[in-house]
Amino acid sequence: MVYRTAARVMASVVVFLTVAIALGWFAFIPSPQAPGYQFVSAWGKKGEGPGSFNDPIGIAVTEDEVFVADSRNSRIQVFDFNGNFRRAFGTRGKNPGQLGRPMNIAIAGGELYVADYWNDRIEVFGLDGTYQRSIGRAGDGPGEFNAPGGVAVAQNGDLFVADFYNQRVQQLNADGIFVRQWGRTGEIGWRAGAFNYPTDVALGKDGALYVADGYNDRVQVFRPDGAFSHKWGGPFAVNINGPFNGWFRTVSSIVIGKGEKVFAADFYNHRIQVFKSDGSFLTAIGSEGAGPGQFTYPIGAAVADDGAVFVVDFGNNRIQKWKTSD
Asked: How far apart are CA 181 and CA 166, in angstroms?
């Protein structure tokens, strides 16, 4: 009788754990809701010549050109959509118009905005490479930066900057005057509105601010009035990382595509994840490796008007182009 009772208890425990795991899986590991993407082409290799890269990071597109932040070569390279080299600009240095380590980049109003990580500023160029102006300086005060990682530009010219080591996102007006910030300067946190090394920012058409909260392994979203809206990434988006759909292992960049789809570079999971603006998982792009259609630490992405996705394959020193399966 005792044996039978123990067996029943054990069976009940097994059933309970099985149900709990199943419920947890369905609750926290979503299935794809949209068609995937197909690999189209790739270009680049490690080097210093035209079309070669040394740790590429940021990427942005116009209607017919791809701009790449060739980080360790301290320059911007420009290609057509087929990967043909067109031009390069930027020289290594600290003077205005020179670059230290260009990170995530953005195009707005016919200008290229470059988050210059080592020079603690935003450098602005014409799309032909002509230097325009510098915004910010080193420090932790309003309008100052400590290794900016990414930048987004609103329609009115306001800048939103991921201030990496200062653990905050700053909003500045077009002249670089401080407007407001999210996060407490120098303080790491996992609660809503706090950051753990923010890496990049993006703006939705409605003015919502999307933040790649890098080492918190999540995306945070703030309404146009600055109030926190929602977040996603792993269970409850509280710095729990993993390889599953909708989870992250370091979010290194973020971009908004057509239909307000959100593309997030999932660095250590070797993929790009695609979401709805509310955080619902849609699909993932790529897998780990060095072959066609594989990534080694994808670090940035850009989306063209036709839906083509360009990915910075950091570890393989190349750019990859993808298209939707449908």
From this structure: 11
